[in-house]
Specification:
Blueprint (H helix, E strand, L loop, with lengths): L7 H15 L9 E6 L10 E4 L4 E3 L2 E5 L8 E10 L2 E9 L5 E6 L10 E7 L3 E6 L7 H8 L6 H8 L2 E5 L8 E8 L2 E6 L2 E7 L8 E8 L2 E12 L1
Antiparallel strand pairs: 1-15, 2-5, 3-4, 4-15, 5-14, 6-11, 6-15, 7-8, 7-14, 8-9, 9-10, 11-12, 12-13
């Protein structure tokens, strides 16, 4: 039997085809840059707000730090013009802490706790997408939990539809990239250019998101190359 050797160009073409089939292409970024920060100064830009935070700019990155005696995770926030569709991209590296959130709020909205609309939570083991407006932060649901009341089965079943938890495995000692895109009633998340999670839920379509914050659990997560874009 005669063995036929595959030429190198043909082999590479087959390999790239298989790779593209098994790895969804990264979405083209939204076209308009609303805000960006390379954290190349010695302190946070004036646009950033901080709450219960000891976050600092150190060696060209934002270092998210929660004070040791704080009763709430560190919050570093940005005001936004009222938006429906937007995307956030940021590089990150775990440096002690094992979780951070990118959260979107409308501070004038009274139907959810602190105006929470939706958010993405990232750990080395998972990325979870939430519709908080009609889910866990909905005012009546949050008030019941705060009071220690048990949620009825209908509410528990509802909450399962308001989140999308996706397993992954990230090396906490190296840098990764995160992109979150909100478009209509759908929020998608890519990590290292791979689509890792999608959530479609009616609360996400909220048309006046006016605040974005990075919430760092404990100490520390490092952030760089931060960009907010709109279509």
């Amino acid at each position: 039997m005669q063995t036929r050797l595959i030429s190198l160009p043909v082999f590479l073409t087959v390999l790239l085809t298989l790779f593209s089939v098994n790895r969804p292409a990264m979405a083209e970024p939204f076209s308009t840059v609303l805000f960006e920060d390379e954290f190349d100064g010695t302190e946070l830009k004036k646009e950033w707000g901080s709450w219960k935070s000891e976050s600092v700019v150190r060696e060209g990155v934002l270092v998210g730090i929660t004070p040791t005696d704080a009763d709430h995770p560190s919050v570093n926030s940005l005001k936004l013009p009222p938006l429906s569709d937007l995307e956030v991209s940021v590089s990150f590296k775990f440096a002690g802490s094992d979780r951070f959130n990118i959260m979107f709020r409308d501070l004038d909205y009274q139907g959810s706790h602190a105006g929470h609309i939706c958010h993405v939570s990232v750990t080395p083991r998972s990325v979870t997408l939430y519709d908080g407006k009609t889910g866990q932060f909905r005012k009546d649901i949050r008030d019941k939990r705060k009071a220690g009341q048990k949620l009825d089965q209908e509410t528990q079943d509802l909450l399962k539809t308001k989140m999308s938890q996706n397993k992954l495995s990230l090396n906490p000692d190296v840098w990764h990239t995160l992109l979150i895109r909100i478009e209509g009633d759908t929020m998608k998340t890519w990590i290292d250019d791979r689509l890792m999670g999608t959530l479609q839920s009616d609360g996400i379509t909220h048309s006046t998101k006016s605040n974005m914050n990075i919430t760092t659990m404990d100490r520390e997560v490092h952030y760089d190359h931060f960009v907010i874009r709109t279509p």
